[in-house]
């Protein structure tokens, strides 16, 4: 059974990489990382790679740069930081001149739960401490972003840092905020079967590789299972939630929005209409300028949310 799962995962990753290759060929080309740093982690994989995207004049800057830590999607089973490259390009255009770091966390089934969470936590803590000193980053201005599974990581990693006794180190400053894009919030309820063969293959592979091997009632898998105290005390004051309308994950995300508001959090974001899960990652067909502009406008709107979180 594990052999069959590994074959399915290999196919899934090929499809992700092939789609990304097509998307990256479109003009304007998205940026490549300026450099990559490897750090140790307590996960089964034992390490994580940090892809640094830096603004112009990074090496010569006299002031410390704010930091955005970004987590990619892929159901914890596929994907890599570069699939968010166009989103990262939008963040780099911010007036705050941030450094953006995409976290290449370990993937299931080789890096099972809580491996991706542990990699995310290791990245946050290293960047806020050694990394901030090494690369002249401002540890008092850190925001987290993520799409899909990465959006889930952006929410659960801060809770893991505060709730897990194995985490010996702490953040020197509170996080400024989180922007989570179409995240998975509640996996305790089985997802609806996809209507097409490819959708069934993708969701079935994700479920078997990661979710079926994870404690679904844990708040570190399903943030909807978190207590009021965890959500109130472990998450930063500002949380931006950006689900999409045509997605089974939308309603749990909206339920979390209302829950956080009741707890006194400053919650921003909205539901993107006429959009499916992962719609921003597909290549834009030639001549479809409206879809290109829709994606660009969406990215700019979310980036302004992050920018507001990072202002002095």
TrEMBL record:
Signal peptide: none annotated. This is Alpha/beta hydrolase fold-3 domain-containing protein. It comes from the Eukaryota. Keywords: Hydrolase. It comes from Zasmidium cellare (Wine cellar mold). Residues 69-279 form the Alpha/beta hydrolase fold-3 domain.
